[in-house]
Amino acid sequence: MTVPDPTRDRPVFGIAVAAELAGTGPQNLRAYERAGLVRPARTEGGTRRYSQDDVDRLRRVSELMDAGLNLAGVAMVLDLQDQNRKLRGRLEQRRRDD
């Protein structure tokens, strides 16, 4: 079992750094946000801040787009993957409780 890293969801990257880490441009990050594929945190002044988890998700979005999916297809795949991850976590918890 892997131990969760509590810093992975800490929003520390600005949009330019997050875009560079994800291998895409800031305009794509804005488009992905509009499509609901990523939800960066905001500072009090409204500046976007991305976490490592966000950057990983952005990389996955880019992979799926490169594979030929459109934004709607990417949203469906990510939603299914998120559901699958939650169900696996619940199953793992039940196995530990038994």
UniProtKB/TrEMBL annotation:
Pfam families: MerR_1 (PF13411). Residues 12-80 form the HTH merR-type domain. The keyword DNA-binding applies. One of its GO terms (molecular function) is DNA binding. SMART domains: HTH_MERR. Keywords: DNA-binding. This is MerR family transcriptional regulator. It comes from Microlunatus elymi.
